[in-house]
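Hi Y.,

Following your request, here is the sequence exactly as I used it, all 270 residues.
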Amino acid sequence: MRKQLISSILLAITAVIAANAQTAETQQTQKGVRSGEFVSYNLYYNWQFVWIKAGSASMYTVKSNYRGQQAYRTSLITRGSDRADQYFVMRDTLLCYYTLDNTTDSNDPLRPLYYRKGAREGKRYYVDEVFYSYPSVKGVHVDLHQQTSKGAHEYRKKDFDHRVYDMLCMFQRARYFDPSGWQTGHTISFDMADGHKVETARIKFRGRNNVKADNGKTYKCLKLSYLENENGKWQEIVTFFVTDDQRHLPVRLDMNLRVGTAKAFLIDDK
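Below is the corresponding structure, written out as C-alpha cells. Let me know if you'd prefer a different format.
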C-alpha cells in the first residue's frame, strides 16, 4: 500500500484514535467516536534536504445514515499546495460509514459498513470501494471494487470468520484501545481491505515522547509505528505520535515513502 503514497498514509493515520470537538471536561472523561469531531494538519515534504509546506489534511465525523441504518460518517481530505503541485499533484478524499454496536467491548466496538477512496495522485486517478455485510456474529463478507487509473472496473468477493477493516474504520476502532498496560514493542495485528485486496497490517508501540505541534502546544504522546508486510518483511511505513490521554489525538506523523519523506503536524483540534 506504500504505492498509494503520502495521501493514503496521512489520511489513514490522521484517523488514528482522534477525538475532538467536545468540551475540555467531556474530553477528559470520554473516549471514542463523537459526532462533530474535526481535526486538521499541515503537511510538509522533503526534497533534497529542504522541507517545504506541501498542503493540508482534515477529518470530520458526524452522525449519519447508511442505507436506512443509523451510522457514523467520517470523511478525510488532503489537498496539496500550489507549490507542491509543481512536483506532485495530490487530491484525495476518503469516506467511511460504520456503526457503534458494542462500544463497551474494546475488541469489537464498531462495524464497518462502507468505504470509498477517490484519489488523484500525480497523473493517476483511481477509486477504491469496500462494501461490508455480516452473515454471522463474528464473520464478515466484503465486496471489493476498484476503478483503476485506466478506467477499468475490477470486482472481488471475500469471506472471513473474523472482522476486517478499511483504513479509516480500523483507526476509528483503535480509539477504543487502552494502552495503559502496553510495554515497548507491544503489537496489534489486523486485516485491512481496500478496493483490490485484504492484507494484514500492524501497529507497534514504541514508547512515549513530548512533541510540539504547529499550534505551538507541546503534548505528552504515545509513539506508535504502522507496518506493512512487503515481500515477506515487515516495513515501517509511518511513525506517529498521539496524545497520552483519553483523546489519543494524533499530533505528529513521520512518513517514509519511496518518493522521499514527509511530516504532518497538528494545527487545529477544535
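The first strand starts at residue 37 and ends at 47.

Thanks again,
Q.
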